[in-house]
Design goal:
256 residues; 6 helices; elongated; single chain; alpha+beta
Length: 256
């Protein structure tokens, strides 16, 4: 990134505060509680109630909360399944698999997924929060033909200054992004679809930073995105069915 492309210090600080601020506060509080507990135990003293409660919450989060967060909405079969895009990050530390059932066929869901991106339809998530971080996001409620195609290597913008390259773009099946993972569509019975988001973090120091700073905000935003696609696809599919039903009697009357 050139000097001209770097964001102003104030803009960068605001984005950092919005994205990482809550995690930094939680991590600091957790670290203080653990340090206080260890110090008390070394001195053969009982930890304070506050420190003990905090340590209990940390244990509960690691044992129950974090696994639920990483696997929101996914079935046991989906957690174990190999999905398109897994090959992009074969050596990983953490894997998340989140999913939602959409009452619309795959071909009615795909167009909404195909047009994601900061410079296109947005991510159907918390727009106000993304814009607080300087993303300049505008979530679309309509489908645009010019947003329905991507080429490998093309950047899906997450922010005006950054994004992830497209690794796979297979209509009605998968949108995979380099260095992260993929959104996958699976037929799920008559007229239904499973939208699965599979993300992976490589073995590196960055995986620790991700666990400490990114996991909680990521699940909040990605969950809303999946639900946003579900809402739009189902609404559009119902509207299309109504139009078809209304047109059928008219066509029958003409033929009669």
């Amino acid at each position: 990134m050139t000097a001209a492309e770097r964001p102003p210090i104030g803009e960068a600080a605001r984005a950092f505060g919005v994205v990482f601020g809550p995690s930094v506060v939680l991590d600091t509080a957790a670290g203080a509680a653990l340090a206080s507990t260890v110090h008390a135990l070394r001195g053969h003293r009982r930890p304070s109630r506050g420190a003990a409660l905090a340590c209990g919450l940390i244990g509960g989060y690691l044992a129950v909360g974090r696994p639920l967060m990483l696997h929101w909405g996914a079935t046991c079969e989906e957690l174990r399944a190999a999905l398109p895009g897994d090959e992009l990050v074969p050596d990983y530390t953490t894997q998340s698999t989140r999913a939602v059932t959409i009452d619309a066929p795959v071909e009615a869901v795909w167009p909404w997924l195909a047009q994601i991106g900061q410079d296109r339809a947005g991510f159907y998530s918390y727009e106000w929060l993304e814009n607080l971080a300087g993303c300049e996001m505008h979530n679309a409620d309509e489908l645009r033909p010019e947003w329905q195609s991507r080429e490998p290597g093309e950047t899906v913008r997450l922010h005006p200054r950054t994004g992830l390259p497209v690794a796979r773009f297979e209509p009605n099946r998968v949108l995979a992004l380099e260095g992260w993972g993929a959104f996958v569509l699976e037929p799920h019975g008559p007229g239904c679809t499973r939208l699965i988001a599979r993300g992976r973090i490589r073995h590196s120091l960055a995986s620790l930073a991700n666990a400490l700073l990114m996991e909680i905000p990521h699940v909040v935003m990605e969950r809303k995105m999946l639900l946003g696609i579900k809402e739009r696809a189902e609404r559009a599919h119902i509207a299309a069915q109504r139009r078809t039903a209304q047109a059928t009697p008219a066509a029958e009357a003409v033929h009669a």
